[in-house]
Design a protein that fits this description.
about 300 residues, four-stranded antiparallel β-sheet, Alpha-Beta Plaits, 2 domains, two-stranded antiparallel sheet, 9 helices, 6 strands
Length: about 300
């Protein structure tokens, strides 16, 4: 059965046919669990074997996942393999004598495009973190904007609202003790959005400041911190100024969206991403009495 979504045989199908590999009937079945139809598929991994991860384009269907895993497991020196359509990654447990370049050639020989460089997986993970920062900036920004639109803006631009009774009621809320809880919520939301969504920018700005350099990022971070500090003093002291947590949220959301969809961040943030060892392998250090067990169902 052809694997291509347009009905054409693919190079991966040809490799499977030439190597005489049985076409898997279920994506979860493997050499060590051939009869199982439920639960995750596992494979026994010898203690000396190491793990390599590749960023690959061309795994477009679940069937292609299964075919690719079967091809890799058929390769001498490979004890387990996992292909994931969802994020385009391929993980291989193999003997240290089998080099990363040989595995890369095997993947390329199946008609797949392997991302250049051993840090391709880190770059993909960094992209995923960037997407998460966009979600935090947008969602938290909306959570800050909603109470401003419903409560604060009507009291600041009274001429837009025809009902003076409503405006007076909202102003009485802001003058009461309830306002403290109101502003605590806004401060927490805008502050968390700033720290999470602009984390890489904050770290770069601090590093530049330590080196005595003034950059656009440093100016942005300094401006946001100044507005946040001014708003906090206004909200929780007798200073009496305007509270502008909305400006903080809008600035964070705008810059985060611009970095993600506009020019992109200058330096990918890989904080919290597992680093690879020399040669591109992130060899597992878990020691067990017998063999290790690898989950090889494509990350599902």
């Amino acid at each position: 059965m052809p694997d291509d979504r347009h009905g054409r045989p693919t190079k991966l199908d040809a490799v499977v046919r030439d190597r005489g590999i049985d076409v898997p009937t279920d994506g979860r079945r493997g050499d060590n669990n051939a009869a199982a139809d439920i639960g995750p598929r596992v494979s026994r991994v010898p203690e000396p074997h190491v793990h390599d991860t590749f960023s690959v384009d061309g795994i477009e269907t679940k069937r292609r996942e299964s075919l690719l895993e079967a091809v890799l497991r058929d390769f001498e020196g490979v004890s387990a393999a996992s292909a994931t359509q969802r994020n385009g990654t391929v993980g291989v447990y193999h003997d240290p004598s089998l080099s990363r370049s040989e595995l890369r050639e095997t993947l390329s020989g199946c008609g797949l495009v392997v991302a250049p460089g051993d840090d391709a997986f880190l770059a993909r993970r960094a992209s995923q973190f960037a997407s998460a920062r966009v979600a935090v900036a947008v969602l938290f920004g909306l959570m800050v904007a909603t109470p401003y639109i419903g409560v604060l803006y009507p009291t600041r631009v009274e001429w837009l609202f025809y009902d003076p009774v409503t405006v007076a009621y909202l102003q009485s809320i802001l003058d009461s003790r309830v306002a403290t809880h109101f502003f605590v919520n806004l401060a927490a939301l805008s502050g968390i959005a700033f720290l999470v969504a602009c984390g890489p920018m904050i770290r770069r700005a601090l590093a530049d400041a330590i080196e005595g350099q003034f950059t656009n990022e440093a100016a942005f971070v300094g401006g946001v911190v100044a507005v946040f500090g001014y708003s906090t003093v206004s909200a929780f002291t007798g200073f009496g100024g305007a509270v502008h947590y909305d400006v903080v949220a809008y600035a964070v959301a705008g810059v985060t969206l611009w970095n993600h969809f506009g020019v992109g961040e200058t330096t990918p943030d890989t904080a919290g991403v597992e680093k690879t060892t020399a040669g591109g392998s992130d060899a597992h250090t878990d020691v067990t009495e017998d063999e290790r067990v690898a989950m090889t169902d494509g990350g599902r």
